[in-house]
Write a structure and sequence with these properties.
mainly alpha; 405 residues; two-stranded antiparallel sheet; globular
């Protein structure tokens, strides 16, 4: 569980970390010249790099050692930068890469509006600069932005929001992880467990993204707010401040759900041949995490597509598959009993503890898990009995039931 922090403390932490953007620019400079458009000074007025300097590895190392008087992105120009047409082409490429995503997109008839938003509406040059750098330096994160931008706009449309709201959703989805460009690449690319300090640094991407977007004149300030809140959750379990449902912007919940679905579709489903239709059980288990309206909008979007759930057997036989799920069901039953007892201990402790707020947060989280296990039926005797009696038939319907479980 993330310990609730005020936004100010996260901003302070971010200000103490080295800015990784210069390193990314140096990487881009190897194939796409990055040039200082004016003299670059540190916060004390000392000249760090002259106008016309290439932001290569050596220049980046000098820049990283200083706090600059103005943000680095305002000092530089890329020889070639993405435009709206190229972003649209990138999205088209992503839809070909993930055909199930393309089917959802086409079923919703979203292409014309998406093209207008990206091509005919001039996106801010600084935003395009950051997306260009991200495309080269963090291609997976760039693709994630395309995925989230599209699905955020689709959900905004399904929710009946006006065109301007849908456009805000698209831009916020595209840029939601833009703050990662300012975090040290060593932390971003670290393999294995993060230290508490490193995890805190990762969390900084939400405030960095907000500060960047809210510094751009003429850009709707809600976009920055959405970036700040896209890791908040309606049940108070998110970060940076542990906000609850009614405290969050609707589009923050929309982008947050799109972000989570992308992680499941790409990080999990891509390895085992599943498609977006197989997200339905995940959505059902998280209907209050992202708010009921947002959950229902995503369910409707998927149901409108021609996609079918995947009947896949990862085990040698359906009997072996059922046995594995039966064992997991027994484990879940035992865990549920332990959590129920733990909940009672927390409720009792909350009445006397000096740290009552921590107890209340834990009670909320544990109660949410216990409630979800009960509503899903996982670990119930009826389900366990069915799994125990499941025969060897490889019928599609049996496999669909097992996959959903």
């Amino acid at each position: 569980m993330t310990n609730p922090q005020d936004q100010g403390s996260l901003e302070e932490w971010a200000s103490q970390q080295p800015d990784g953007y210069a390193e990314h620019l140096a990487g881009v400079d190897r194939t796409n010249a990055v040039v200082a458009t004016e003299n670059i000074y540190n916060e004390r007025g000392v000249l760090i790099a002259r106008k016309g300097t290439r932001v290569n590895k050596q220049a980046a190392q000098r820049i990283i050692r200083h706090k600059l008087a103005k943000p680095l992105e305002t000092h530089v120009r890329l020889r070639e930068s993405l435009d709206g047409s190229q972003l649209y082409e990138c999205l088209s490429g992503l839809l070909k890469k993930y055909p199930d995503m393309g089917e959802v997109y086409q079923a919703h008839g979203f292409d014309d509006e998406c093209k207008v938003m990206l091509v005919d509406q001039n996106l801010n040059a600084l935003v395009l600069q950051k997306l260009t750098v991200m495309r080269q330096q963090m291609p997976g994160t760039f693709e994630k932005g395309l995925f989230c931008g599209m699905f955020a706009a689709l959900m905004a449309s399904e929710l009946g929001l006006e065109y301007q709201e849908r456009k805000i959703a698209l831009i916020a989805g595209l840029t939601h992880d833009i703050g990662f460009l300012h975090i040290s690449p060593d932390v971003i690319s670290k393999q294995g467990r993060l230290t508490p300090a490193e995890w805190r640094t990762i969390q900084c991407h939400v405030v960095i993204g907000q500060m960047f977007l809210q510094s751009i004149p003429g850009l709707d300030p809600r976009i920055g707010q959405i970036l700040l809140e896209h890791h908040e959750r309606c049940d108070g379990t998110g970060y940076p401040t542990g906000k609850m449902d009614k405290e969050l912007d609707l589009l923050s919940k929309v982008v947050g759900l799109a972000d989570s679905l992308q992680a499941i579709r790409v990080n999990q489903f891509e390895q085992n041949g599943r498609n977006l239709r197989d997200l339905m059980p995940y959505l059902q288990l998280n209907d209050v995490t992202y708010s009921a309206d947002v959950y229902r909008s995503m369910c409707t979007i998927i149901k409108k597509s021609p996609l079918e759930p995947t009947a896949r057997n990862p085990e040698p036989t359906s009997r072996a598959y059922a046995n594995k799920l039966y064992e997991r069901g027994l484990m879940i039953k035992e865990i549920n009993a332990l959590l129920t007892n733990f909940l009672g201990v927390l409720i009792e402790g909350a009445n006397t503890a000096s740290t009552r707020s921590v107890y209340l947060r834990l009670i909320m989280i544990v109660n949410h898990v216990v409630t979800k296990l009960a509503s899903a039926g996982l670990g119930k005797e009826e389900l366990l009995s069915w799994l125990a009696s499941c025969n060897e038939m490889e019928e599609k319907n049996v496999l669909l039931e097992l996959n959903e479980i």
